[in-house]
Amino acid sequence: MACCDGCNSKCNEYLSYQVVKYLLIIASIFFWLVSAAIMGLGIFAEVVRRDLGSMNTFLVSPAAALIAAGLVVFIVTFLGMAGALRDNLIILKIFIGLMITGLLLQLIVGLVAFAFKDQAKNFINEQVSKGVKSYFADLDFKNTMDWVQERFYCCGGVDYEDWEKNDYFRCASPGPASCGVPHTCCDRRANPTDGGVVNTQCGYGVRVYERLELVDIVYIRGCTDAVLIWFEDNFDIFAGLCIGLLLPQILGIIFAGIHIRNVTSIVEEEKNKRWYFDRPDGSAYGFQPVPHSEAESTL
After folding, report:
1. How far apart are CA 106 and CA 86, in angstroms?
2. Which fold would CATH assign to domain 132-232?
3. Residue 197 CB burial class (10 angstroms; 0-12, 13-18, ≥19)
4. Is the separation of the CB atoms in 13 and 266 below 8 Å?
5. Beta-carbon neighbour count of residue 86 at 10 Å?
6. pLDDT tens digit sequence for 26-51
7. pLDDT for res 100
8. pLDDT of 127-166, one tens digit each?
9. Quick check: 16 and 258 in contact, CB under 8 A?
10. What is the membrane topology listed in the Swiss-Prot or TrEMBL record (predicted)?
11. Structural domain boundaries of the chain?
């Protein structure tokens, strides 16, 4: 398909075709490689988790989420790349359909989570409660929970009393950790270590005291509320992040739609083009049959 000399509209159309096509290919390849890296990271995390013999809980299955998300993006971006590279309208339409479906699902999940935030909060608390029971057996959950408690200055899911559900910290337990909480619940702000050795027994036996007596000793508030408050305080950042995630998807849909229009227009033009050619009888022009292109065959 070559640009017709002296015809600005056709030249612009062909230029648009080339620019959009290669933008779509480059973007698809980039996100295709990113999705492959995400899948690789998820597979690596899953192998490590299995080697450690960790138990399965909802909150500590990021490996499965990474693999699933990476696989979906890998397939969709591959379709976008293949469709743009081959000017295959069927593949491009499938790509647009999948992109629109994914975009709608993300919006629906966000709206449902916002509309049913109380139910979502209760669900998270239930999952944390399950994880607390297997705190020492599930290294994934233990590491995640310890990090959250230290980072957000919190203890447990609903509050520090959640640790009563753990066999080691239960008040009826005969061990030294009885009626206690993990050391990551200890308030480092009031009792800084200054880089020294952390007292891993600082939370032992603290739950025998009244709630107000524990201020400046351990964190009292639950981690679910602490994390939700942190999200609310940083809402503008997360709003920008959401826009950053949605914008490439919207642009992908728009570019694919423009490319379909450009390819369709060029194919139709090739079908109906009047070509000049010489004939023995001196006639000037007629209709020249044009071979079917791959793009035309996909209409």
Report:
1. 29
2. Cd81 Antigen, Extracellular Domain; Chain: A (1.10.1450)
3. exposed
4. yes
5. 13
6. 999 999 999 999 999 888 877 776 76
7. 96
8. 899 899 989 988 878 988 999 999 999 999 999 999 999 9
9. yes
10. Multi-pass membrane protein
11. 8-118+234-271+290-297, 132-232
